[in-house]
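Journal club side-thread
Mid-discussion, someone asked how the predicted structure for our own chain would compare to the paper's figures. Pasting it here so we can look after the session.
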Amino acid sequence: MTNVSVVVYGADIICASCVNAPTSKDIFEWIQPLLKRKYPQLNFNYTYIDINRDTENLTDHDQQFIERIEQEELFYPLITMNDEYVADGYIQTKQLTRFLDNHIS
């Protein structure tokens, strides 16, 4: 079974450019059953990183994504899979499935 590491970078406050979008935590909870149902052959490992609170013991890779969010190059929630950028801001199912279909499964 192929392992896929899914990281959601987010915050308690909804992104200013994402008005009426779900919160980062909502996205984190929403993608878990969605991906499991769509890709039962994959083993997903999920991590949620609060960009304002979880700032200790992060890898350089995680820190770089947080810095890019802080510099407004990227928006949260931001999703990576196996350390590769997948989507940020207003997350849609198609972004996740396209990445998995092209890179993993």
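Post-session note: The longest strand covers residues 2-10.
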